[in-house]
Amino acid sequence: MATVPHYFVSYDLRKPMRNYQPLYEALLGLGAVRVLDSLWYVPYPPNSAGALFDYFRSCIDADDGLIVCESIDWVSAGLDNAIPGSVPRAA
Length: 91
Prior knowledge:
The chain is of the alpha+beta class and 91 residues long. The chain has helices at 21-29, 49-57; strands spanning 6-12, 33-36, 39-42, 65-71.
């Protein structure tokens, strides 16, 4: 059985007075869940990190930071919102 990858997107928005609502709407439009302040879990088809990067890059400024990670395993605790289908480690 193949392991289905999951994606995590994190960003550094460097202009605090800019409206980043388009980025948040793009994330939510794909069913993303905010798990930490600037880290989102994004359910998306395999082998799509580049496509996700291009999609979200269009929503932010050129000097902002962005990373898209494809993951098959993780451990978490103290998240703001649960990742669908995951079991957090007890504190």
